[in-house]
Amino acid sequence: MADEKKRDWIDILDIIAKLLIPVAIALGGALYSAHQGKVDRERLAAERQDENTRRNLERDTGYVRMLVSGNEHEKNLGIGIIDVLSRKNKFSPDLLAALNIIAGGAENDTLTQAAKRVLAKQQQVDSAKTSNSAIDVYIQISKHEQGTDAEALQNALRKEGFASPEIELVAREVAPVNTYIRFFAAPGALQASRVKDVMSKLGYKSAVQDFSAYAPSPLSYIEIWIGKNQDKLPKSSGT
């Protein structure tokens, strides 16, 4: 009897194994196919990116050749095409080096003047992108009572497109007496001015401080230090 039960269990296990083997093979095949499909998609995407990069390089090289051509018509045509690309926000940064060289030519040269116009336009576009991009603004308060007003300031900054992480309560030993807005890179001056406008509307009296000379490398964020002299703002501020 015991031998028969043992054989029964062996037969059952054998049946289960025979059933599971095809399932395991099918599952393995499906997983391999999915993985291979992902690899193929990534390879195709990389190839397309490489092809786009190659085409853009060939296009920009063609523009540069036109700019340095001995044919005045080709030069004017080249700078004209680049001007159109700039106005349509399709300007390639790879052309900056060539344009900077051309812009350093004779003042009365039409090509020099055209290159300067394109560069000036591109600087405006870059400045607009910088001013519209989100920047972190860290708020430090020197006492608990300033927390509610700091939250209102944080919300106002976020409505203006700034990113404002968690408010920090700093030790009184490091907190300044007055309220300051500090930036740590030259482009931050414009952003700091915008922050000051937001604070003024809420009733804060603050001063902007340029700390870019003290930073080992340019830092993109801004710090607000609420001074120890800052009392609770009137409820009517900012309304």
Would you mind describing this structure in some detail?
With 239 residues, the chain is of the alpha/beta class. It has two domains: 1-131, no CATH class; 137-225, 2-Layer Sandwich (Alpha-Beta Plaits). The protein contains six helices and five strands. It has a five-stranded mixed β-sheet with strand order 2-1-5-3-4, with helices on one face. Helix 6 (188-202) links the parallel strand 3 and strand 4 (207-210). The longest helix is centred in the N-terminal third of the chain and has 66 residues, at 2-67. The protein is flat and about 85 Å long. The termini are far apart. The mean pLDDT is 80.
Largest sheet: 5 strands, mixed
Mean pLDDT: 80
What number of domains? Answer: 2
Helix and strand element order: HHHHEHEEHEE
Q: What is the radius of gyration computed over CA atoms, rounded to a whole number of angstroms? A: 32 Å
Q: How large a portion of the residues is in β-strands, by DSSP E? A: 5-15%
The N- and C-terminal alpha carbons lie at a distance of 92 Å
Poorly predicted residue ranges:
none
Task: For the structure shown, list the relevant keywords.
239 residues, 2 domains, flat, 5 strands, single chain, Alpha-Beta Plaits, five-stranded mixed β-sheet, alpha/beta
Produce a short descriptive summary.
The protein is an alpha/beta fold and 239 residues long. Helix content is 59%, strand content 10%.
